[in-house]
């Protein structure tokens, strides 16, 4: 089936249509999309998917530049959103991506990329050749309840860590991100200093997140404290079906009390009480973090990261950027650290 992207008539229609088509997540909500546009310094365009006779879905598409090059993505990289792409029936997603690539090319973008929270298969006769890279995440099924999860899913080492945190007096509290933003960012800097790089998000970007979350039913922020001291914290977006581990920080000095295990366990219990059926722990690519997530007993689930070059030279430019960008981040980190120490 061939689909086409048609500009959505209004923001009100977008919010109304989210309830009509399958696959909508918290990340498709308009306030979250507007947050993504701010974090990525991109232009958000809202489209309906049409089959020529009727609307069959929605598609948020972001346009931004890297130097002189115009790019399209859903979602953009480093924009606090693990997956996005179209809101439509699963069997229509490949055709929807093809329609998005067509629109991106029409808007003179040289490259388009997409992260979709499910696996896809592309037809060989599609107009655009989508390259894919293997990605996976950890998803914990919450439908059996806390007792069954405790007995059957959690690794014994994870249960011991939770008990240790409880006996040590670690307490979990829901807070507003704006109320803990300074210690939160300080812990983020501590975490990423081990990799010789700054946090992916700046302090001002965390302030944007805090402003968006305040008073909105988009995400929960939980912290672990011991004797009043903040030990760890996390941001957990949610909708009626899933809660996501979007971002987390911790202090090295408090890890012996195992606050992170208790923090995630309390998130799991809150989600179950709220009738949410899945916990997506977002990502399985960092070995040490993956071991921690795996201790809760989730299934490792693949998802789709795909991209296509819309200009002949774009594929070469992407490979060059992928090689040089990590080195650039390390250099910028050391320069920034040196300036701060002077």
Provide structural commentary.
With 342 residues, this protein is of the alpha+beta class. The protein has two domains: 4-129, Gcn5-related N-acetyltransferase (GNAT) (Aminopeptidase), CATH 3.40.630.30; 138-301, Aminopeptidase (3-Layer(aba) Sandwich). Helix content is 37%, strand content 27%. The protein contains ten helices and 14 strands. The chain has helices at residues 11-17, 30-40, 93-106, 146-153, 156-167, 181-193, 203-213, 259-273, 287-294, 314-341; strands at residues 4-7, 43-50, 55-66, 69-74, 87-88, 111-116, 131-141, 171-175, 219-226, 229-237, 242-244, 247-250, 278-280, 299-309. Strands 1, 2, 3, 4, 5, 6, 7, 11, 13 and 14 form a ten-stranded mixed β-sheet that branches. Strand 2 (43-50) and strand 3 (55-66) form a beta hairpin.
List keywords for this structure.
single chain, 342 residues, alpha+beta, Aminopeptidase, 2 domains, ten-stranded mixed beta sheet, four-stranded antiparallel beta sheet, 10 helices, 37% helix
**Which segments are poorly predicted (pLDDT under 50) over 5 or more consecutive residues?**
none
- Helix-and-strand structural type: alpha+beta
Number of strands: 14
Q: Helix content range of the residues, please?
A: 25-40%
Question: What is the class of the largest domain in the CATH system?
Answer: Alpha Beta
- CATH architectural grouping of the largest domain: 3-Layer(aba) Sandwich
Rounded Rg:
21 Å
Strand content: 25-35%
Major sheet summary line: 10 strands, mixed
> What do the pLDDT scores average to?
92
The string of secondary-structure elements, in order, is EHHEEEEHEEHHEHHEEEEHEHEH
Ends distance: 61 Å
Q: How many DSSP H or I helices?
A: 10
CATH topology of the largest domain: Aminopeptidase
The CATH superfamily name of the largest domain is Gcn5-related N-acetyltransferase (GNAT)
Number of domains: 2
Q: Outline, from the CA principal axes?
A: globular
């Amino acid at each position: 089936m061939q689909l086409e992207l048609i500009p959505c008539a209004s923001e009100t229609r977008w919010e109304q249509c989210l309830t009509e088509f399958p696959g909508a997540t918290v990340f498709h909500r308009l306030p979250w999309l507007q947050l993504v546009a701010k974090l990525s310094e991109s232009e958000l365009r809202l489209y309906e998917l049409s089959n020529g006779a009727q609307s069959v879905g929605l598609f948020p598409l972001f346009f931004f530049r890297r130097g002189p090059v115009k790019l399209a993505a859903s979602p953009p990289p480093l924009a606090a959103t693990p997956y996005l792409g179209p809101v439509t029936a699963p069997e229509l997603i490949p055709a929807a991506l093809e329609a998005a690539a067509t629109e991106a090319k029409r808007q003179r973008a040289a490259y388009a990329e997409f992260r979709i929270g499910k696996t896809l298969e592309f037809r060989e006769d599609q107009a655009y050749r989508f390259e894919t890279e293997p990605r996976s995440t950890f998803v914990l099924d919450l439908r059996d309840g806390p007792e069954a999860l405790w007995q059957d899913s959690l690794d014994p080492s994870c249960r011991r860590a939770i008990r240790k945190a409880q006996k040590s007096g670690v307490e979990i509290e829901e807070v507003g991100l704006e109320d803990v933003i300074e210690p939160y960012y300080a812990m983020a800097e501590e975490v990423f200093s081990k990799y010789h790089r700054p946090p992916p998000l700046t302090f001002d970007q965390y302030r944007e997140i805090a402003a968006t979350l305040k008073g909105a039913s988009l995400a929960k922020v939980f912290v672990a404290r011991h004797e009043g001291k903040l030990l760890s914290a996390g941001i957990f977006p949610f909708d009626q079906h899933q809660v996501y581990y979007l971002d987390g920080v911790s202090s090295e000095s408090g890890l012996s009390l195992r606050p992170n295990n208790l923090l995630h366990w309390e998130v799991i219990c809150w989600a179950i009480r709220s009738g949410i059926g899945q916990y997506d722990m977002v990502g399985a690519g960092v070995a040490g973090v993956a071991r921690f997530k795996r201790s809760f007993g989730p299934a490792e689930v693949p998802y789709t990261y795909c991209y296509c070059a819309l200009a002949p030279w774009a594929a070469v430019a992407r490979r060059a950027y992928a090689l040089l960008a990590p080195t650039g981040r390390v250099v910028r980190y050391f320069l920034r650290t040196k300036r701060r120490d002077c």
